[in-house]
Design brief:
The complex is a heterodimer. Chain A has strands spanning 5-7, 10-13, 19-24, 31-37, 44-50, 53-57, 65-68, 75-79, 88-95, 105-106, 110-114. Chain A is an all-beta fold. In chain A, the strands form two sheets. In chain A, strands 2, 4, 5, 6, 9, 10 and 11 form a seven-stranded mixed β-sheet that branches. Chain A has a four-stranded antiparallel β-sheet with strand order 1-3-8-7, with no helix packed on it. By secondary structure, chain B is mainly β. Chain B contains no helices and nine strands. Chain B has a five-stranded mixed β-sheet, with no helix packed on it. In chain B, β6 (61-64) and β7 (70-75) form a beta hairpin. Chain B is globular and about 40 Å long. Classes of the chains: A mainly beta, B mainly beta. At the A-B interface, β5 and β10 of A face β3, β4 and β8 of B.
Chain lengths: 115, 109
């Protein structure tokens, strides 16, 4: 296992189009997180899953955003009707979330540019 | 959200120790103190974490104040590869990792 994998690494889309990102976590990790990061800012929490259950969603996650983790393994983040303000780096992380003393492993991110 | 306060930026000379401070006055008893760093164009990378006692690993040391309201990440000998944004995070199970704006560390050759 080589860590958390995100695909694609870069995505350029026209405003109004839908985009979908994929995250493959470390195989035994039961927790999966999505974050968004804009230039000069720290990552902002979007949502997280424990196994296949989506346990928390940020208010940043508007109705245009949806995330799934259908079998408790990989996850997808879809953005519908993209806007220029959606341009950001989208980061995925996973952890073995049994206790708070475990670390999270982040992927390299998907950089979205909406033109 | 559990809040931490860090200086926006710091500088260090190469091969000298670096002390990165973090204040977390609202910390609760179940919060672990985590440090992550983010190199340019990379995802955040785990550095170290602790609860009450000081911690050492191959990357760094974490010194936690007795009242746990502050902590210091110590890089014993800064290298150019340590230039990154360092985030101090309070984390407890059932919550998410809350990132602030972090400290941007510049290492001067």
């Amino acid at each position: 296992d080589t860590g958390v994998s995100q695909d694609p690494r870069h995505k350029i889309t026209k405003r109004g189009q839908n985009v979908t990102f994929r995250c493959d976590p470390i195989s035994e990790h039961n927790r999966l997180y999505w974050y968004r990061q804009t230039l000069g800012q720290g990552p902002e929490f979007l949502t997280y899953f424990q196994n296949e259950a989506q346990l928390e969603k940020s208010r940043l996650l508007s109705d245009r955003f949806s995330a799934e983790r259908p079998k408790g393994s990989f996850s997808t983040l879809e953005i519908q009707r993209t806007e220029q303000g959606d341009s950001a780096m989208y980061l995925c992380a996973s952890s073995l979330g049994l206790v708070a003393s475990t670390e999270a492993f982040f992927g390299q991110g998907t950089r979205l540019t909406v033109v | 959200d559990a809040k931490t306060t860090q200086p926006n930026s710091m500088e260090s000379n190469e091969e000298e120790p670096v002390h990165l401070p973090c204040n977390h006055s609202t910390i609760s008893g179940t919060d672990y103190i985590h440090w992550y760093r983010q190199l340019p164009s990379q995802g955040p990378e785990y550095v170290i974490h602790g609860l009450t006692s000081n911690v050492n690993n191959r990357m760094a040391s974490l010194a936690i104040a007795e009242d746990r309201k502050s902590s210091t990440l110590i890089l014993h000998r800064a290298t150019l590869r340590d230039a990154a944004v360092y985030y101090c995070i309070l984390y407890f199970i059932g919550n998410q990792f809350y990132f602030g704006t972090g400290t941007s560390l510049t290492v001067i050759p």
